[in-house]
């Protein structure tokens, strides 16, 4: 049985490889995911979003250790680097990713700025 921490680490590994199928296998069918000020719902919406996004930018998320918040919630401090497909830097930032798990899969993700000192 996969632990919540393993699930989250596997998600980041798949995302960083730009492995849509591997990442989608770790999400519920009705997954709820942020896209700026709007929300994406369902695996088909996420597949389309990621495949299009990865043609424009290559994002690498370097996650810290997942923190169990209880009730199926996990928080992860992330250092994010965004580059163009040719490798030119676009941005770096720090975030807190908040995950809601259900039945051993991720059902929701939220993103907050990371305000902790580096």
From TrEMBL:
CDD domains: NTF2_like. Transmembrane segments: none annotated. Keywords: Isomerase. Residues 8-108 form the SnoaL-like domain. Pfam families: SnoaL_2 (PF12680). Coiled coil: none annotated. One of its GO terms (molecular function) is isomerase activity. InterPro entries: NTF2-like_dom_sf, SnoaL-like. This is Ketosteroid isomerase-like protein. It comes from Paractinoplanes abujensis. The lineage of its organism: Bacteria, Bacillati, Actinomycetota, Actinomycetes, Micromonosporales.
């Amino acid at each position: 049985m996969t632990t919540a921490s393993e699930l989250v680490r596997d998600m980041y590994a798949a995302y960083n490889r730009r492995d849509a199928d591997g990442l989608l296998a770790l999400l519920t069918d009705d997954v709820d995911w942020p896209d700026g000020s709007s929300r994406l719902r369902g695996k088909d919406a996420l597949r389309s979003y990621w495949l299009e996004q990865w043609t424009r930018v290559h994002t690498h998320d370097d996650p810290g250790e997942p923190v169990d918040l209880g009730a199926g919630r996990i928080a992860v401090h992330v250092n994010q680097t965004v580059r163009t497909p040719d490798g030119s830097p676009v941005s770096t930032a720090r975030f807190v990713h908040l995950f809601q798990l259900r039945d051993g899969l991720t059902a929701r993700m939220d993103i907050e700025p990371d305000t902790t000192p580096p």
